[in-house]
Write a structure and sequence with these properties.
By secondary structure, the chain is of the alpha+beta class. The chain is built from 4 helices and 5 strands, in the order αβββααββα. The strands form 2 sheets. The chain has a 3-stranded antiparallel sheet with strand order 3-5-4. Strands 1-2 form a two-stranded antiparallel ribbon.
Length: about 140
């Protein structure tokens, strides 16, 4: 996607649980786009050593990476959505409905992602998401 919240959004996704494969494909895609931009313009993406990539959407300052999975959490959904949100906060996660950030929630399937973007590496963010989702699943 170009010129939505960010100047550029690269997405890698697939059904199943191969997070490593999705991450590797994402890294390859980012490199290919970056190489193409460099070849065409002679410029690199704007990268600050401390703050990461410069985006037009300040909530994505840093790596800009949002790693997420769709997961069924019927126990959390039935028990308390507010408690799920609090638990996600404590795990560094953000729960969303499967219709996107503002699309609302239906059923018991959630889009769970890392909450933070700034101050962490891509690997740390993906690992936070994996660990947190595994915790939520066990607790469900």
């Amino acid at each position: 996607w170009v010129n939505e919240e960010d100047q550029l959004r690269i997405i890698s996704m697939e059904k199943g649980g191969d997070v490593k494969g999705v991450f590797e494909r994402l890294a390859e895609g980012i490199k290919a786009v970056g190489d193409s931009v460099k070849e065409e313009s002679g410029q690199d993406f704007m990268l600050h050593k401390k703050y990461g990539y410069v985006h037009s959407c300040p909530t994505n300052l840093g790596t800009g990476m949002r790693a997420s999975v769709h997961i069924d959490l019927p126990g959390w959904t039935t028990h308390s959505v507010e408690e799920l949100k609090k638990r996600c906060e404590s795990l560094g996660l953000q729960p969303r409905g499967t219709r996107g950030e503002s699309g609302g929630q239906t059923g018991h399937t959630w889009d769970i992602s890392n909450k933070h973007r700034l101050g962490y590496s891509e690997v740390q963010l993906v690992q936070t998401m994996i660990d947190g989702v595994n915790t939520l699943y066990k607790e469900d």
